[in-house]
Amino acid sequence: MSGHTVQDNIVAVRGRLESALQKAGRTPGSASLLAVSKKKPAEDVQAAYEAGQRSFGENYLQEALDKQQALSMLDITWHFIGAVQSNKTREIAEHFDWCHTVDRLKTARRLSEQRPDHLPPLNVCLQVNISRQESKSGAAPEEVETLAAEIATLPGLSFRGLMAIPAPTVSFNEQRLPFRALRELLDTLRINHPDQPLDTLSMGMSDDIDAAITEGSTLVRVGTAIFGARAS
Ligand SMILES: *Cc1c(COP(=O)(O)O)cnc(C)c1O
């Protein structure tokens, strides 16, 4: 895909984001765009960067580290959004600004311990299995409060909010339901943990941006609509 197309797509997705915010009666600019560049080359990341995009999400650690090295001269905020294996926590703690996919205490503790002292705390979201899908990542909704209370004590982490990947559904109204449930979980956490910087609802992808924004998403994670289909 040519750089020109990526830039056009960035402009189109930003327009879609802003019109969804407006339709929902939300403040312009109150949700941001995370460009998901998994399985896409560094040149595509650079093309999006040239269109003004600064935050990028990656799922596969080695692939991400290679791109970070190739693009080290760019001022990029890197988000890890893939499954976190225990033996990968050190490199995530050392090389990313955010991790959206914390779903157990062991991972949270390791990331906190392994975050280098010279870096600010790692921004984390707790991933929730909001649609209760069998064998999917994410904490069960009823585990959220207990995990949150522990995460809030970890000095190497900044606890920013919740993340979910709901089961795919077709209609706008069906898409809204799990996003609403995630927002309600965050509302409760904010009441119970007023000392934490819980400002992030990481929800919404290419096919459900509008429903996510309607339900309060502050960070949509968009791959296909920016970079095109991925080879599987
Ligand atoms: C791949 C991925 C996305 C982007 O999905 P698209 O449908 O391509 O927009 C968002 N979030 C996570 C966690 C992903 O793995």
From TrEMBL:
<feature type="domain" description="Alanine racemase N-terminal">
    <location>
        <begin position="27"/>
        <end position="230"/>
    </location>
</feature>
<feature type="modified residue" description="N6-(pyridoxal phosphate)lysine">
    <location>
        <position position="38"/>
    </location>
</feature>
<dbReference type="InterPro" id="IPR029066">
    <property type="entry name" value="PLP-binding_barrel"/>
</dbReference>
<dbReference type="GO" id="GO:0030170">
    <property type="term" value="F:pyridoxal phosphate binding"/>
</dbReference>
<keyword id="KW-0663">Pyridoxal phosphate</keyword>
<dbReference type="Pfam" id="PF01168">
    <property type="entry name" value="Ala_racemase_N"/>
</dbReference>
<protein>
    <recommendedName>
        <fullName>Pyridoxal phosphate homeostasis protein</fullName>
    </recommendedName>
</protein>
<comment type="function">
    <text>Pyridoxal 5'-phosphate (PLP)-binding protein, which is involved in PLP homeostasis.</text>
</comment>
<dbReference type="InterPro" id="IPR011078">
    <property type="entry name" value="PyrdxlP_homeostasis"/>
</dbReference>
<comment type="similarity">
    <text>Belongs to the pyridoxal phosphate-binding protein YggS/PROSC family.</text>
</comment>
<dbReference type="InterPro" id="IPR001608">
    <property type="entry name" value="Ala_racemase_N"/>
</dbReference>
